[in-house]
Amino acid sequence: MSDTSPFLTDSRADLSRAADALRSGDIVALPTETVYGLAADALNPEAVRKIFEAKGRPLLDPLIVHVADIDALARIAVVDSRLSKVAAFWPGPLTVVLPRQTCVPDLVTAGKDTVAVRIPAHPIFREVLRLSALPLAAPSANPFGYISPTTAEHVRTSLGARCPLTVDGGSCAHGIESTIIDLSHPSRVRLLRPGPISTEQLEAVLGPLEVVTHTSAQDAAQDAPGMLERHYSPKLPMVLFERGQKPPSLPPGTALILQSRRPTTPSHARVYYLSEHGDCVEAAHGLFALLRQVDQQHHSVIIVELAEPKGIGIALNDRLRRAAAR
After folding, report:
1. Strands 238-241 and 64-66
2. Pick from 189, 7, 197: which is nearest to 90 by CA?
3. In what order do the strands lie in the sheet with 64-66?
4. Which among 5, 23, 117, 212 is most buried, taking Cβ atoms within 10 Å?
5. What is the pTM of this model?
6. Which residues contact 50 (CB under 8 A, 6 or more apart)?
7. Is residue 228 a part of any domain in this protein?
8. By the 8 A CB rule, do 163 and 24 touch?
9. In this structure, are residues 67 and 73 in contact, taking their beta carbons and an 8 Å threshold?
10. How would DSSP label each residue in 101-133?
């Protein structure tokens, strides 16, 4: 299939075609409520290998396995009693790391004895789960390390012919990847990646979280996706500054991205706004799409204002800091 072929739709025929391809060991890009995922049968090592090849993803970075419900989750991971405390966030943008079942291939877990699992909410992804009757590994549908895709067109421009089929489900609701917590240790709960489910929401049901920003060795198997120091990165260099502060010096060709509209802005920079009124949910929804837009224009550097560090703003800043790392 060429990279200009029509996208699949949410019709029964197209979703059945996607499910058939997955059962045959192919990869398919699917929308989720977070970002678009590059899906494959999580229990088929050869299918999973196609994900790594298409993305150029290092084998040390594990994958999230998406399932339809708790019963399907129990076939992939060892169920923890604490799951009942977070069940209200499912289906939704929460990933939990648990001890793995023996059926899960090493490729999915980077050889570790844990597996990341999620029950997604997007109706298209859930219907493909039902039609395929498979657990689906599905990292973001983009070249490894680049900005995550939040539309089908992002998948096409990023992967082209490396992705044989893409289902178009419109723009992703949240626009950033799921929150990841680690419940693999009976005596502690670790936050491995902030996301749409906030720390405050999780601590209300689980108690204090141990926040982990990255595993100690960046060249070793990671505890979960999204923990490498550099990730979600545009090709252009990025510079960050604190919310509400004056931007650093702006060289010619600067793209200045602000969290909200300001009364005055520099006249010698192209200015973009993540939200008119500083709404972090709106900013997170549009972040990756705006970074892609700016990265494709004739700028020399991207300078971005950080969000207020609370709620989803914590996740927004996490993505910005990893995108700016070099």
Report:
1. unpaired
2. 197
3. 28-30, 37-41, 136-137, 64-66, 114-118, 94-99, 179-182, 190-193, 210-211
4. 117
5. 0.95
6. 25, 26, 27, 40
7. no
8. no
9. yes
10. PTTS-HHHHTT-SEEEEE----HHHHHHHHHHT
In the chain, the percentage of residues whose pLDDT exceeds 70 is: 98
**Type of residue numbered 164:** P
Q: What is the pLDDT of residues 190-217, one digit of tens each?
A: 999 999 999 999 999 999 999 997 765 7
Cβ–Cβ < 8 Å for 180, 192: yes
The number of domains in the chain is 2
Identify residue 52 by its one-letter amino acid code: F
Q: Rounded distance, CA 30 to CA 28, Å?
A: 6
8 Å CB contact between 36 and 150: yes
Q: Which residue has the tokens 């992703």?
A: 172
CA-to-CA separations, 268 to 11, 158, 245, 254, 299, in angstroms, rounded: 48, 31, 18, 8, 12
65, 108 Cβ separation under 8 angstroms:
yes
Q: Mean pLDDT, to the nearest integer, of 119-133?
A: 98
Helix residue ranges per DSSP H, the chain: 12-23, 45-55, 70-74, 83-86, 106-109, 123-132, 152-159, 199-206, 280-295, 312-324
Number of residues assigned to the chain: 326
Which structural domain range is residue 140 located in?
12-211
Q: At residue 65, what are phi and psi to the nearest 5 degrees?
A: -100, 125
Report pLDDT digits (tens) over 66-90.
999 999 999 999 999 999 999 999 9
pLDDT digits (tens, 9 = 90+) for 17-64: 999 999 999 999 999 999 999 999 999 999 999 999 999 999 999 999
Residues 45 and 193 in one domain: yes
